[in-house]
Amino acid sequence: PRGRGLGDLYLGARGVLYGTREDVFQLAAQAILTANTASASKPRQNYLGEPNASPNIGGWFELLGTFNAGSYVRIPLNVGYKTSFQQDVPSLEIGNQLTFAAAVQVLLGQERFMITMEAFGRTAADARTGFGGRQETPVELLGGFKYLNPKGFTIGMAGTGGVTSGYGNPDWRLIGMLAYTMPAKSKAVPVDTDGDGFPEPDPDRDGDGVIDRLDSCPDEPGPAENQGCPEEQQLVIEESRIEILEKIYFDLDSAALQRRSYAVLDNVAEVLNVHPEILLVRVEGHTDSTGSAGYNMRLSQRRVDSVVRYLVEQGGVSEDRLVAEGFGETRPLVPNARTKAELARNRRVEFQIAEGEPEEPEDTPGDP
To answer: CA 358, 364, 366 angle in degrees (round to 5)?
Structure first.
């Protein structure tokens, strides 16, 4: 059959059962209500929707698993059960169905582009209606790409083709996608404890003029040029990252930390230990473009693994608050670097605040 048009209307909800994006495996579940908006007009001509009978409502439950094979490759695996009000398609009897899908997704271009290869299909849920039969088991292959805009928009295009003789399988099909993802977490509303209509000023426990959330030593007074500490600091706390003022040095072509970097890492550990509201820090490693891209990616990962190990073993930082990610040469500060100084700028370790933000503890004493 040939045709074009809109498919069925889906309304669903999804929730995470296990894991986070940083884990090797995550498991989620989704429940969907389907309305047969496509079948209402041409149920036997184009197979754009499910051939359900009145009241044209069905249900779909899926388990969604994802394996992270490194930083840039994901392998989703889905299984589901789809309810349908039984209908007869010429020479077939269609009822409830089992659904399945497997894919490989590769992130490119600083995680802004995704290439996807996917196989998906469905079959009858019981032998009476043809479980596993050729005609009752349509399977398609899909290839496509997505552009992931940092502001939350996703634009995608894909093409599919049927690989079995199952009912409704197209010779080919084009699919477009436009999506928007809301930020995962919004900032808290400023507190107004005295009810005067104005948010309270940022607290400064030690009274040194540096507010607590940006103070590397919130309980010890110190000048602003030392980030609120009595002694000179080697880092600055910002809204979304901890900026170190000294480089972290490693042995040549190695993940071994040099002793001259211990002091700045000790400083990072001290700040994390006095700011427990910083829930998760992503330690990012970057190299210059000397050598192959694959080697640089592996080297950057080994180096940030060494940094995290030092912060945990020597600095007493909880391992749950740190995640290491190497980017190799993919995120240079100086593109097309040629000079020694430019290459050196691209070799760096950064500390990004991934969850939580510097703020005052809840038990901060107020004015008497």
So the answer is: 130
User: What pLDDT is attached to residue 281?
Assistant: 94
Q: What are the structural domains of the chain?
A: 9-180 (2.40.160.40), 212-355 (3.30.1330.60)
Tens of pLDDT, residues 230-242:
556 678 888 888 9
The values of phi and psi at residue 297, to 5°, are -65, -45
Read off the DSSP letter of residue 257: B
Q: Which residues contact 112 (CB under 8 A, 6 or more apart)?
A: 147, 148, 149, 150
> What is the separation of C-alpha 294 from the centre of its chain, rounded to a whole number of angstroms?
22
Instruction: Give the pair of three-digit tokens for residue 292.
Output: 């192959």
Strands (E), the chain: 9-18, 25-35, 57-68, 73-83, 87-89, 92-94, 97-108, 113-124, 139-148, 153-162, 173-180, 235-237, 241-244, 280-286, 322-326, 348-355
Block residue for tokens 């930082």: 317
Yes or no: say if 273 and 318 are a contact pair by the CB < 8 Å rule.
no
89: DSSP letter: E
CA distance 325 to 306: 11
The total of other beta-carbon atoms located within 10 Å of residue 169's CB is: 20
Residue 326, CA atoms < 13 Å, CB-side half-sphere: 23
Q: In whole angstroms, what separates CA 303 from the centre of its chain? A: 22
Q: List, for residues 110-139, the tens digit of each pLDDT value.
A: 567 889 999 998 888 776 656 767 777 889
Residues in the chain, overall count:
368
Tell whether the model's pLDDT for residue 332 goes beyond 60.
yes
Q: What is the pLDDT of residues 183-201, one digit of tens each?
A: 655 455 555 565 666 665 6
Q: How much is the pTM?
A: 0.46
